[in-house]
Amino acid sequence: MIDIPFTLDQLRILKAIAAEGSFKRAADSLYVSQPAVSLQVQHLERQLDVPLFDRGGRRAQLTEAGQLLLSYGDRILSLCQETCRAIEDLQNLNGGTLIIGASQTTGTYLMPQMIGLFRKKYPEVSVQLHVHSTRRTAWSVANGQVDLAIIGGEIPADLHDSLEITPYAEDELALILPISHQLAQVGALPIDELYKLQFITLDSQSTIRKAIDRVLLDSGVDPRQLAIAMELNSIEAIKNAVQAGLGAAFLSVTAIEKELQMGALQQVRIDGVVIKRMLLQIRNPNRYRSKATEAFCNEVLPVFRDKA
Description:
CATH superfamily of the largest domain: Periplasmic binding protein-like II
CATH architecture of the largest domain: 3-Layer(aba) Sandwich
Strand content: 15-25%
Radius of gyration: 24 Å
Number of strands: 11
CATH topology of the largest domain: D-Maltodextrin-Binding Protein, domain 2
Order of helices and strands: HHHEEHEHHEHEEHEHEHEHEEH
Number of helices: 12
């Protein structure tokens, strides 16, 4: 049997240095001393007989050999975590961890409700929520770092073969206006009237903005003809700006549910048009599916899908 020339701790150290960019910050993140980190790297390089870091610059840069070891090391550590979770699962949801991913809108406004319901049923299970762009979330699921995710954006084409992609629920995009706006009480707004409004949107490079623009275009509304008065960097900022009377916006109904109930914003229907997008549930079919994941999929997701 071949002797393995590295330990799991050494792989964790390598990963931490690559993530933090320095030996000192890596040591801090691992709660060990910097000399201990340096010593482990020296042992690792001696065992492998290759340099793993280019020490010429101010930032710790991996050599080609270091990048290769990091790539395999990530997979090894991920499998180790998966093994531990599979063993924990034998105890019937009396512990363990569920890692859920979500794109920005879904993760901010929908997932906390889902997790709340799950935690009521299984308080012993630790839940982690990772909220990132659709692209980053999809990669995390494909790499086994996340058990499952609910996303609203476009999944990268090169991941389609690696993921199990299931339509989850339709998410309506609502036109919202200030309560005091002259059009706030109209029964249904003709599409042509949209182009006379001043809109508040996310930055044009935002993943959410691009997704909303695609849905609008598919629904017969040309986002390029909308008058953009302001570009802000968060959905909460957009809601506050609309409430302040600064313009109109298109936002997910999920994100404005509370404001609609309180009467702080007015949703206006568009004549003959309902603007919706499909939320997707994704998982890696080749990874271990924990009992916690099964419980979340079977007992929580259907509740909110039916609401949608």
